[in-house]
């Protein structure tokens, strides 16, 4: 039934589900929970880093240079992605048909994509003028709107992640 609903995706989803990793993720008692904890820790670090930066852009802790904070938090964000992505792929391999047909999962991935686009637009746009508002000055309105949007997007991504356990 899922294969019919997913059309041509069933082949590669079956391949993932029947792979040694997919089978291990379903059959080893502690593997899925351990991977899930790694995924959640990575998300906590990533979202924490993003929210700290966004709060600075919104005007908190104006004595901290935006550029210095960005450099510092970028390392944490990249490290978090090194935990999140592999762990997420492992979790997906356990139940690929369920995830691929789950609207909450698709929404979560879409929101992550939108958050990434928002970050790229921020860095290619208003962040280029950061020398004017690096310390002691308010960020431009556009930067504040993007920071607020970023926080809403990431909190919603976390919410979707939690809802996946119940859908």
Automatic annotation (TrEMBL):
InterPro entries: DUF6644 (IPR046586). The chain crosses the membrane at residues 29-53, 73-92, 104-127, 147-165. Keywords: Membrane, Transmembrane, Transmembrane helix. This is DUF6644 domain-containing protein. The keyword rRNA-binding does not apply. It comes from the Bacteria. Residues 15-166 form the DUF6644 domain.
């Amino acid at each position: 039934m899922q294969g019919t609903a997913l059309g041509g995706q069933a082949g590669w989803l079956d391949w993932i589900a029947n792979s040694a990793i997919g089978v291990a993720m379903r059959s080893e008692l502690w593997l899925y929970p351990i991977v899930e904890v790694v995924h959640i820790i990575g998300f906590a670090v990533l979202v924490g880093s993003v929210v700290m930066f966004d709060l600075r852009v919104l005007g908190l802790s104006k004595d901290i240079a935006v550029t210095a904070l960005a450099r510092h938090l970028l390392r944490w964000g990249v490290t978090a992605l090194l935990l999140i992505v592999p762990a997420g792929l492992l979790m997906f391999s356990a139940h690929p048909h369920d995830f691929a047909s789950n609207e909450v999962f698709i929404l979560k991935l879409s929101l992550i994509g939108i958050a990434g686009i928002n970050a790229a637009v921020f860095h290619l746009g208003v962040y280029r003028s950061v020398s004017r508002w690096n310390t002691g000055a308010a960020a431009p309105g556009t930067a504040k709107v993007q920071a607020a949007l970023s926080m809403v997007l990431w909190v919603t991504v976390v919410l979707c992640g939690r809802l996946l356990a119940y859908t």
